[in-house]
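Reviewer 2 asked us to include a model.

Predict the structure of this chain.
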Amino acid sequence: MGVLCLAASSDSENRAKPPLASDDLTERAEHLFRAVVDDDPAQADDFFFPRDPFIPLKDVQDPARYHAQLVATYHRDIKELHAKRKVWSQATFVSFDLGTPPTWVVSGKEYNKIGYYRTFHGKLHYKVGDRSNEIDVGTIISWDSRWYVTHLLPIRH
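Predicted model (structure tokens):
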């Protein structure tokens, strides 16, 4: 089917910028928070960039393998975030904000065949008692009018 194998997408060029805030974004960000609290990474899989659109999007030798590596890193990062706090029982989700102003990344950049909007350093806000805290969410990109995480913690080389 080629690069634009986007039957489920209403925007074949992925040009629609998702809203900066939405119930969908908040709900999936809360899933990430719950995954960290419960030390259960799979709870946050709906906030990670899905495999099916990733394969035609990425211009790398084996995009399915690369996606699997990214998911494994995302899961490892969730476990690492969980380990940073001894007790999560009093932690409550507050909100999620995208980070830097979203910018358009043209096709051909960042090893991609299809463009997308990208933002860095989203903030997952939570409280423990009266104390406000946040988790930095490294890289978030757009697909089909929704935001998805591609990197949670900083990339390690």
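The beta strands are 91-97, 103-105, 116-128, 131-143, 146-151. Residues 1-8 have pLDDT under 50 and may be disordered. We have added this to the supplementary material.
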